[in-house]
Amino acid sequence: MDLMIGIDGGGTGCRAAVAGADGRVLGTGTAGAANIVTDLATSHTHIIEAAEAACRDAGLQPEKLAEMPAVLGLAGANVGGNGRLLEGMLPFARSAVVSDALTALVGALGPHDGAMAIIGTGSIFAARAEGAVRFVGGWGFKVGDLGGGARLGRALLEEALLAYDGIHPRSPLTQRVLAHFGNDPQAIVEFAHTARPLDFGTFAPWIIAAAGTSDPVAERLLDEGRRAVEEALAALMPAGCDRLCLLGGLSAAYAGLLSSRFGAILKQPFGDALHGALAIARERFGPGGANQP
Amino acid sequence: MDLMIGIDGGGTGCRAAVAGADGRVLGTGTAGAANIVTDLATSHTHIIEAAEAACRDAGLQPEKLAEMPAVLGLAGANVGGNGRLLEGMLPFARSAVVSDALTALVGALGPHDGAMAIIGTGSIFAARAEGAVRFVGGWGFKVGDLGGGARLGRALLEEALLAYDGIHPRSPLTQRVLAHFGNDPQAIVEFAHTARPLDFGTFAPWIIAAAGTSDPVAERLLDEGRRAVEEALAALMPAGCDRLCLLGGLSAAYAGLLSSRFGAILKQPFGDALHGALAIARERFGPGGANQP
Question: What pLDDT was estimated at residue A12?
């Protein structure tokens, strides 16, 4: 029986699935965060915990992991050699650490060609056409990730300060932000000084809610986000692309805003990133796969 | 003889001047940085060094400082009580710590009413009309300081990444930035991750130089900066304002770009921030001043 294992890991947790050569999932398991950029050792521990739990769920001894090839989709896989480093530490028969965006793409598209946008705290875009995969964006909110929640939140704080100074018009939303900071602009500055992407991103739902009541500042910020998302997709999508999947926490908000060119080809994702990891494992390590001995 | 002392301090150094009640400068001195937000103790040391040097330059014993009132214009004077804390540590007869933007405004306008924009790494705007002073901006580059060098530089790095991804058109300037980072977008991301305002600001001169050769990206970024500066000035300037002083490292670049409404009232600054500190000292502590016993 040709078993293989797929892992989907990130800052909030780690999921594993054991599957047969036909792709059928035999067992799953979860464990804590796997952020290999900030904590490789803990990530390693959690990955093995999740994989062993998936084994037990499939009625297998954890020792069997040594016989299974694994594909791991992890954030930061391509940053500073962390992915290669982790591959050398893992107990699986063979290991391939790939980016979480690749497993998300392969999972979302299934057997089809098409494009994907992941818009959560950050933003990244990818397309696959005739086997060729291309990514754009995903550079982090400081100089990228346009349209993502951190950028939306940061832009809202800037608008609140511009409204405070009388430079831009106030709106119910900018007043709500100022009130949240005790009507003290210096409190906004201090928050922004140490805010991480997730912290800025906490204000994205405020924008989405306010846009629902036609707040002009919220509508403008969301429209700037939509334009950035559409610019990235336009640059990325091959001619004739007829499938676009939106993933991430802001996908529902943007789905309703997209121009018809993009809205018309929106499709539900075929599967999730864990499915994607298993699909890549099957392709690389399964019968007739690229890396079979 | 009613002597007083003025101090102009900041992240790059500290200047002091001793003047008579008529405002005539009798001696000046300099010392190291005075950044009271990050290092109050060293700032205190440098302020006293500069003041004692000014005394000696005026042919006075440093002990005379205990008889002189002082006004100090310092960055961060209004942040977290640092200004008040420093006032209690100083050896002068009386001390008033005010923001460096106020001493710059009073110095630049001299006896006139008018408006001022300081556009360097950051940006802040102020106006005085019939004794009333108002400031806008200056909130730091993360959620403010529009038009300043840090914002320009950060925007350029973002454009270089958008050009790399094929989302926005390339230009000679975006190509120069990519080449500077070894054509490795990840190197830009890593730079941005730890860059301070001054680090981002190092790219502002690149933009100004490229705009001089009609680079389209440089022209667009500088035009966005100009619009932000003009929006702030429009919100700030009282009706009939006929005097606008531009200060800071980017003032020359922006002076040539301003719309005629603003360009027509540009004036050379009357004096610098040290003159401003002495003018405030004269007003508050001089004969007939607000705080005379």
Answer: 84
Q: Are B128 and B137 in contact (CB under 8 A)?
A: no
In this predicted model, what pLDDT tens digit does every residue of A175-194 receive, in sequence order? 999 999 999 999 999 999 99
**Of the candidates B57, B68, B75, B106, which has an alpha carbon nearest to the alpha carbon of residue B90?**
B68
**CB-based contact B166 A142, cutoff 8 Å:** no
- Phi and psi dihedrals of B64, rounded to 5? -60, -20
A268 in contact with chain B, both atoms CB, cutoff 8 A = no
Beta pairing class for A14-19 and A25-31? antiparallel
Q: How far apart are CA A73 and CA A75, in angstroms?
A: 7
ipTM: 0.91
Question: pLDDT tens digit string along B235-284?
Answer: 999 989 999 999 999 999 999 999 999 999 999 999 999 999 999 999 99
**Distance, CA of A23 to CA of A111 (rounded, Å):** 13
Which residue on chain B is closest to A230 by alpha carbon?
B167
pLDDT score at B1: 56
Q: B189: which 2 tokens?
A: 């991301």
Measured in angstroms, the CA of A139 and the nearest CA of chain B are apart by 6
**Per-domain residue ranges for chain B?**
4-109+271-285, 114-269
Distance of alpha carbon A83 from alpha carbon A244, whole angstroms = 28
Tell me if domain A4-109+271-285 and domain A114-269 are identical in fold: yes
Residues paired with residue B99 on neighbouring β-strands, in sequence order: B74
Mean pLDDT of B34-40: 87
When pLDDT is cut at 50, 70 and 90, the band that residue B293 belongs to is very low
Q: Are the C-beta atoms of residues A232 and A146 closer than 8 Å to each other?
A: yes
Superfamily of domain A114-269: ATPase, nucleotide binding domain (3.30.420.40)
CB B203 within 8 A of CB B156: yes
Is-contact A53 A29, C-beta < 8 A? Answer: yes
- Whether B223 and B208 have beta carbons less than 8 Å apart is answered as no
The residue type at B49: E
Residues A99-105 have a mean pLDDT of 95
| Contact yes or no for B189 and A232 at CB 8 A | no
Contact B157 A137 (CB under 8 A): no
Checking if the pLDDT of B220 tops 60, the result is yes
Q: Is the minimum CB–CB distance between A188 and chain B shorter than 8 Å?
A: yes
Number of residues written out for chain B: 293
Question: What torsion do the CA atoms of A152, A166, B246, A154 make, to the nearest 10 degrees?
Answer: -10
Q: What band does A161 get if pLDDT is binned at 50, 70 and 90?
A: very high
CATH class given for the domain over A4-109+271-285:
alpha beta
Taking an 8 Å cut-off on Cβ atoms, the answer to whether B139 and A166 are in contact is: no
